[in-house]
Design a protein that fits this description.
Length: 215
């Protein structure tokens, strides 16, 4: 449902029904200095679900594939987050440029308990804090034709500890839990990284903050 005024159109959402998106990208070779022709396809579904007394859940499921041999900047570079701020569109304990894929399936899940637990604690009820839980799961793979294009050494001959490929049998997983509505604007989350703990310079646990307004 939309509200439209002249050239402005505002979405009013679609209730609890899932929102499905489809993105196709075609890269042109030889246009404005471009060097590659390629095809990318991504399908996504997201939905918010009311769970009665236990609160509300929201999930986003995305799957994509790149059909051409490309250098790593044009592949799917999964978004890591090395800041102190949490981000729902990133992997909060993944390093930046840690993983790349040409086939992937990603699940982001959040559950908002609202007042289900903390409202039962008399001293916390007046604070109106809300518990949240989250899970990020990422399956991915990198074909041999693209793996051969990923640099392993820099110009000085030093090994590059970036741009790893995921195993389709072993997903990247991180789990989180936290409290929102702190002073009406703060959210604090604690995250645990479950897999790929042997990669260099990774954080197995982290606490991050965010700012949000809840009416």
């Amino acid at each position: 449902m939309f509200v439209q005024n002249d050239n402005e159109r505002i979405s009013l959402g679609n209730g609890n029904r899932p929102k499905i998106s489809l993105y196709y990208t075609y890269g042109l070779n030889g246009v404005i200095g471009s060097d590659f022709e390629y095809h990318k396809l991504e399908v996504g579904i997201r939905q918010s679900l009311k769970m009665g007394l236990i609160g509300r859940s929201a999930y986003s499921l995305t799957s994509g594939q790149i059909f051409s041999a490309l250098p790593y900047p044009l592949l799917k570079v999964h978004i890591g987050n090395e800041t102190i701020f949490s981000a729902t569109n990133a992997y909060n304990l993944m390093n930046e440029f840690e993983f790349i894929s040409d086939r992937y399936v990603a699940l982001n899940y959040q559950h908002f308990f609202e007042g289900f637990i903390l409202n039962r604690v008399p001293l916390l009820r007046k604070l109106k804090w809300r518990l949240v839980a989250s899970a990020n799961v990422l399956f991915g793979s990198l074909s041999d034709k693209n793996r051969e294009l990923v640099p392993t050494f820099d110009p000085r001959g030093e090994p590059i500890p970036l741009f790893r490929a995921l195993s389709i049998e072993k997903p990247y997983i991180e789990l989180g839990y936290g409290i929102e509505n702190i002073f009406k604007v703060f959210r604090i989350d604690a995250f645990h990284r479950i897999t790929y703990l042997d990669n260099p310079d990774v954080s197995k646990f982290g606490v991050k903050i965010n700012f949000q307004f809840i009416l």
